[in-house]
Specification:
homodimer; mainly alpha; Multidrug-efflux Transporter Regulator, Chain: A, Domain 2; 13 helices; elongated; DNA-binding
Chain lengths: 264, 264
DNA sequence: CTTGACCTTGTCGTGACGTCAAGGTTTCTA
DNA sequence: TAGAAACCTTGACGTCACGACAAGGTCAAG
């Protein structure tokens, strides 16, 4: 047999057979005078055996191990390990499809937020925010959009923030239309701080109102907030404040300090 | 933020962020005077968005498409396509695990043949052959082992042989201990032909006995065997005959010719 | 004599990064 | 104040199982 026929018998390509030669999985056969490889039946038997193992999902290295060893025990172990691995893959795919199903449903409802695929709870809140905004006159405050981005970011990030209080805040805002209206009032007042100085009297007013809006249980769940350094200049926190106008940043800083005092 | 902190926020490595820069998925940020990349909040938002999509299983190209397009429809399509793909993967893994379960059971029974993982039917036949061999005096005929290799090869190959008659032959031999004993008589007689000439009178005798052993329905299922050229020198068939002693090959050739006449 | 179907070796590409290497910078600690 | 630890930079190679291509040589049929 020449390489093409051998490959056809085993249901692979010639390239695959040559690859097996290079990695030492299949021995190079003798050559005819013209340089063509000349295979015997033994080669076909070996190749089919290799193919059956790879079709199960074994890597070429694993196949080499199985074929090298005095088979009987090694094969069983490898198969068991492979099965365990496939089980993990199944589970991982199942979870992803579960998430996907939720997102696809949101897409059908038209409630899939532009911020990207987020959790169902966050999508619920974003939907409520869209409804709230449409019930109020004028365009949506820019601060509301920023808040959505921040929430989406925190939820997908591995900071401790996502631990507990974020979920609580999202839940209470998402389920309480009146609270959302009050939040939108605050977003509007925040927007108005855009051009103000950090010593503007409205800064402290807004900071106080923000804390007033937070339910007690959310504040309780923020234990550990005391270690939060609002004056950190360089890192993630600094980048967050740099994203705001000076007076807005100052208002947020003051609000956080108020929460820190409350928790203490 | 520097790259390490950005990466930590999103739960990826710095290398991943740099990779996204190179493929254009995330824009290169400004540099500090020392050459370090300096990220703002916007970058974190984008990176987390990218990560959420990749975690669902989208490729970086698909993520780029989703982020580039005026999102809302594209995303839905990509997610639906992804879900369909995951479903296919699930099915494929399910099938492989099903095969694996059979093999693992064989391994527990100790009936996993050394020829490698084969179908349950073939494993059954090989087990029956092992039992038959142990019931008879002397070592197993070499021809029996060759036949096993050939069956394993044909079953895993994409030749038309595996179409119908092989399964019939395997089934009838595997379920009929007496037939297997007759087959072992023939294997022994085949072995005895190893050093004989092609004109030995035993050649024709064995060929006739082989055909006698084949059930009529198996012969019936071999329609098309007429086109089989037993004198083909070079290909798979030639390699098969080359694997046998001359008189053995001649006996097989004559047996095939007898079947061809029967079918006609 | 050409056409087409084979064969040869060698090299690059795939996807999403991991892992050095060989340096420069910043920050913490003794 | 020195040095170590922990950052950062670019660049290049490795992963895995081949597919695709290049640039040829070989062989049988029309």
């Amino acid at each position: 047999m020449r390489i093409g026929e051998l490959a056809a018998v085993a249901g692979v390509t010639s390239r695959t057979v040559r690859h097996y030669h290079r990695v030492g999985l299949l021995p190079e056969p003798i050559r005819r005078s013209n340089g063509y490889r000349q295979y015997d039946l033994r080669a076909a038997v070996e190749l089919v055996r290799i193919r059956r193992l790879t079709e199960l999902g074994l890597s070429l290295d694993e196949v080499a191990d199985v074929l090298a060893d005095d088979e009987g025990r090694e094969l069983h172990e490898v198969l068991a390990a492979l099965d365990a691995d496939l089980e993990r893959q199944q589970e991982s795919i199942r979870l992803r499809r579960e998430r996907l199903a939720g997102l696809l449903e949101q897409a059908r409802d038209g409630t899939l937020p532009a911020e990207g695929p987020v959790s169902a709870e966050l999508a619920e809140l974003f939907g409520a925010m869209a409804r709230t905004s449409s019930e109020r006159p004028g365009p949506e405050p820019a601060m509301a959009a920023k808040e959505r981005e921040l929430f989406a970011l925190l939820e997908g990030s591995s900071t401790d923030a996502s631990g507990g209080w974020l979920a609580g805040l999202v839940g209470s805002l998402g389920s309480d239309p009146e609270a959302l209206h009050r939040a939108y009032d605050l977003y509007t007042r925040m927007d108005e701080l855009a051009g103000a100085g950090t010593d503007d009297p409205r800064v402290a007013e807004v900071a106080g109102a923000v804390v007033e809006l937070m339910p007690q249980d959310v504040i309780d769940s923020m234990a550990g907030v005391e270690e939060f350094d609002v004056d950190e200049g360089d890192g993630f926190v600094g980048a967050y404040f740099a994203d705001l106008a000076p007076a807005q940043a100052e208002a947020v800083r003051q609000a956080i300090r108020l929460v820190q005092e409350r928790v203490r």
